[in-house]
Amino acid sequence: MALISNEGEPVSRWWISKAVDIIKTDREIFSSGNMRRARLELIAGKNRLATIKGWMLAAQIIKNGKTSKEQELTDFGLAIYKNDPKLEKSATWWAFHLSTCFSTASEPYSSFFLTLDNLSKDWLNLASLIEKIQNMLKQDNGDDYKDSTMESLLGSVRRMFVEDRPLAEIGLIETRKIREEGISIRLGSPKLTDEIIIHALAMVRFHKYKSTPTVDFSELTKSGLSHFLCCTPPELREHLRRMKQSTQWQDYFNFNEQENLNSVSFEASCTPDKTLLLLLQEGRDTWL
Question: Into how many domains does the chain fold?
């Protein structure tokens, strides 16, 4: 996975909604020749334009177009434009989060979640978090990334979950600051709806198990799914066991229970295009 290219800054709801609206008709808005107009449209300087573009690529809202000057909306970006152009729904931000977790251009976003404990949900000092992730991620030639690079990028990720930013308002991450210890972080306890879980299953299937119809539950948790949902594996198992009883989800998955072995079978409707619309159109509010 490639590192996110966001100039070490978080992004706002307005920036993304405005950029989605512009790119729908102007694919070259982020090209160097259009920088002046982009700065006026997005009320942002050169570095913040890179921030906006970097987060949108990381969240798979846009993708590279036919030429090097172009960016175009993905199916996810188009779904946002049609269903929630102002990005006001909590479901949209769940989709943003899950898409970024499974993106190939978003590190250290996914590692941020994978490094935090999802069983005890103990607090982890920010300096320790940065050190652990720096040991996990390597450049193509095997070298470590610079301290400054990791500190900048992890700072931008952390600040997506504080103050009034939408990802903070769905409760994915908790942050505290103690004078002697500095900043500490842990996974939050967000409200999980069935639509969120179904879309998460579709995303992990598409990105990890495209040709595998059935996956052991233990393998599913190793993929990071429970970390990305900020729940424990036993909690995820109980959600799947409960949802299995509903005819509403039988076209999406089946949870198989045998002695000492649980597994998930993906059904025909468990695809991101279908589950995304389900989440955006029928997902219940989960704002804290």
Answer: 3
